[in-house]
Specification:
single chain; mainly beta
Length: about 110
C-alpha cells in the first residue's frame, strides 16, 4: 500500500538547521508531484513547498522562501526538506503528501527554541 514516512525532525535553536526526509513506497514516486505541509499549534495545516516529478517545478510558501530547499532523489524514492535559519514560528508538525493519491505521512515534529 501507499506509504509516506517522514523523519529528521527534532529540537533546534533559532538560527539552526534541520533536514527532513520523506521515504515513499507503494506507488510510482518518480512520476508524482509531492509536497511538504506543516501544522503549527492552533493553526491550520499549510503548504510549505512542492516539487514536481522531475524537479522542474518547485514552489515555496513566502514564509520559507530563501530559507528552505525542497529536493528529491527518485532513485531512492525520497523527498527532502533542508531547513536553514530556523525561526520559532517554524515550530510545527511537518507532513509529506502525495496529492495525486491523497496520501499523507504520519508527520515529524520540528521545534525551534528562541
Amino acid at each position: 500500500q501507499v506509504q509516506l514516512v517522514e523523519s529528521g525532525g527534532g529540537l533546534v535553536q533559532a538560527g539552526g538547521s534541520l533536514r527532513l526526509s520523506c521515504a515513499a513506497s507503494g506507488f510510482t514516486f518518480s512520476s508524482s508531484t509531492v509536497t511538504w505541509h506543516r501544522r503549527a499549534p492552533g493553526k491550520e495545516r499549510e503548504l510549505v513547498a512542492s516539487i514536481s516529478s522531475g524537479s522542474g517545478n518547485i514552489y515555496y510558501a513566502a514564509s520559507v522562501k530563501g530559507r528552505f530547499t525542497i529536493s528529491r532523489d527518485n532513485a531512492k524514492n525520497t523527498m527532502y526538506l533542508q531547513m536553514n535559519s530556523l525561526k520559532p514560528e517554524d515550530t510545527a508538525v511537518y507532513y509529506c503528501y502525495a496529492p495525486r493519491l491523497g496520501s499523507w505521512g504520519q508527520g515529524t515534529q520540528v521545534t525551534v527554541s528562541s
